[in-house]
């Protein structure tokens, strides 16, 4: 696509974004059905089914980059995507449900299960940061210790969330009073009436559409960024991360409109916990230890992702009711921190 003019690349980018948006709506609706049919529960459904599906573009980009040896873009997209996907919660808070008397997203979706999901993200990113300091020669058959720890932390996190979805030794089983009037996995609305097979087929088609459109987004965006003179790191952490976050935004808004605030937040935290697993995949495919070769920008983005996640974890515990500029105080804090973080990333990129 490098030979195409910039205006045509923008058109292709916008068309692929539209496909991702529509596919995301169907992913959310069918996940709603599959959660009920398969008894996954809202939180676990967001953590596994919807989170993995909406991250298909990142999976395709990582595999393609690892095969072609372009690890810099893949790592920047993964770690930059975590920070940017957390900011998607700001947009969901702002536009997901509007009206007089509507409380912030973290007030409505407050649950210890969601807090646990946020802590899984922090744990996985902590391993990522520590793993960057290990020697690059510490690799056997394409597997590194830090890669194994990331996968292990993710799997343990899934098991803990599954257990928390059924029982927690807290009042109201970990659900906040005056919040969403249902326990995890029990929605306030009736999911669309369709068979499990039909839901699975629609889910598969929507996932495939997300995958193909996500790859087109990456190719068109990369070609456009090359013409604009953006570096691979900056492109991966900003434009590419924004493009691959569109499924989360689409599914999140749809989930909130369906009355499932928990699923919207679980999708974000579940996707963010899953993304570092792709670093293990990149190492396995390329045969090179990815994390030890991470640069200052990658470590910086990981730390930014931890900070933004912790802000929302605190918001879920304190459940702010006051809105500023149409969003909760925690969302405003995340937005300000992220913008400051992007300014810092530009400074690092310029210094490098």
From TrEMBL:
Keywords of the record: Membrane, Transmembrane, Transmembrane helix
Residue ranges crossing the lipid bilayer per the database entry: 6-28, 40-67, 73-95, 107-131, 137-161, 197-216, 228-247, 268-287, 299-319, 331-351
Alphabetized InterPro entries for the sequence: NaCa_Exmemb, NCX_ion-bd_dom_sf
Predominant location category: membrane
Sequence ranges assigned to domain Sodium/calcium exchanger membrane region in this UniProt record: 9-130, 199-340
Signal sequence residues: none
GO CC field: membrane
Top-level taxonomic group: Bacteria
Annotated localization: Membrane
A GO biological process held by the record: transmembrane transport
Span list, region Disordered: 171-191
Pfam families, per the entry: Na_Ca_ex (PF01699)
Membrane topology per record: Multi-pass membrane protein
Identification of the protein by name: Sodium:proton exchanger
